[in-house]
Amino acid sequence: PVTDGSRELHSLCAQLEFLLQFDLKEKRSFFGQRKDYWDFLCQGLARCRQEHEGIQFVTSLDKLKTPVGRGRAFLRYCLVHRQLAESLQLCLLDSKSLCEWYYARSPFLSPQHRAEILGSLYELDCVTFHLAL
């Protein structure tokens, strides 16, 4: 199993975060706080499902104060529960929403790149992750 001490885990999470932040449009909340990929994921999953367990779990953690911290915790939760590919795929279904959140250079806006990314993420479902949540 992959644990918190694994260098590969840190590299994987950094690459995932890079993909999710690459060419992300700058958006602000009503109170001026900058939105991040966490907000994109919340919106995308809310549109597709009633409530995602990962979103509920992360929002229940009082120690997480920033969207980036919540996003990182969500990625780890999804890796442990083998839900990363499915959760991201649900967020990427709505092309109008993708265009609202990402500029044209985002790999998520290319059907070919999106399919390659999701295919790789689905392969992670057979990897066991034992991470502290």
Automatic annotation (TrEMBL):
Q: Which residues form the RUN domain?
A: 3-133
Q: What is this protein called?
A: RUN and FYVE domain-containing protein 4
Could you list this entry's UniProt keywords, alphabetically sorted: Autophagy, Coiled coil, Cytoplasmic vesicle, Lysosome, Metal-binding, Zinc, Zinc-finger
The regions listed as transmembrane in this protein's record are: none
Q: Please state where this protein is localized.
A: Cytoplasmic vesicle, Autophagosome; Lysosome
The family database entries (PROSITE patterns) matched by this protein are listed as: RUN (PS50826)
Identify the main location: cytoplasm
Which GO biological process annotations does it have? autophagy; cellular response to interleukin-4; plus-end-directed vesicle transport along microtubule; positive regulation of autophagosome maturation; positive regulation of transport; vacuole organization
Q: Name one GO cellular component term.
A: autophagosome
Native organism is Calyptomena viridis (Lesser green broadbill)
Q: Which GO terms describe its molecular function?
A: zinc ion binding
Instruction: Relate the protein's function as given in its record.
Output: ARL8 effector that promotes the coupling of endolysosomes to dynein-dynactin for retrograde transport along microtubules. Acts by binding both GTP-bound ARL8 and dynein-dynactin. In nonneuronal cells, promotes concentration of endolysosomes in the juxtanuclear area. In hippocampal neurons, drives retrograde transport of endolysosomes from the axon to the soma. Positive regulator of macroautophagy in dendritic cells. Increases autophagic flux, probably by stimulating both autophagosome formation and facilitating tethering with lysosomes.
